[in-house]
Amino acid sequence: MTRLMTALCAAVALTAGAYAIGGMNSRTALPDLPLVGSAQAQEADVDVSTIVEMVQGAEDAPVTLVEYASFTCPHCANFHAGAYKELKKDFIDTGKVKFVFREVYFDGPGLWASMVARCAGPEKFFGISDLLFKGQTSWVRAGSPADVADELRKIGRLAGIDNAELEACLQDGTKAKTLVTWYQENATRDGVSSTPSFLLNGEKMQNQPYADIKEAIEAELGS
């Protein structure tokens, strides 16, 4: 999903009026998020150190692969349905690759999905992410923002998050603003303008067939 960074940042400009959503049995609204450009993000008093990196694999693995992905990106869903499973089996589970997943926010629903995925902490993040990618076509196209949010709540409940905890996560305006600032700092530093994008031991690598990703990782491993 190739999108210019300027369009990407503009899409994250959320207002309560544009993204008022329905919660359970009453009308609620997700956090109001004014646009925070990269320069503004640096000036804002936002402590991004509170955001937990979502990591799989051995901490001391010889290769680190960072993926930048959006939960609303169909190419990201395709990657996680195919290549990611091979990557996990061949390299992550064997201790050869430390895999870091960083969210990109093209739009309000992508941010809300991230807030649901992070709601139960790192232990459940990748399991919820899998549910989000598997069901992407359903929740992304659910209809109004209220409908989309309700579908995301269903995924959260399916993952075992109770209603009160789920709603607290979705209504956490401070967390939402911090996530947006964290994302913008990461994307600016690493030159990310499309998803999925990858960093292999710090070097930028575009999405490509798994055979090519595997070859690149093996080259880093010296195999």
From TrEMBL:
Keyword Translocase part of the UniProt annotation: no
The keyword Signal is annotated on this UniProt entry: yes
PROSITE patterns for this protein: THIOREDOXIN_2
Annotated signal sequence range: 1-20
Segments crossing the lipid bilayer: none
Domain of life: Bacteria
Keywords carried by this UniProt record: Signal
Coiled-coil regions listed: none
Domain Thioredoxin residue range list: 24-160
The protein's role, per its UniProt record: May be required for disulfide bond formation in some proteins.
Similarity annotation: Belongs to the thioredoxin family. DsbA subfamily.
Stated name of the protein: Thiol-disulfide oxidoreductase D
UniProt organism field: Tritonibacter multivorans
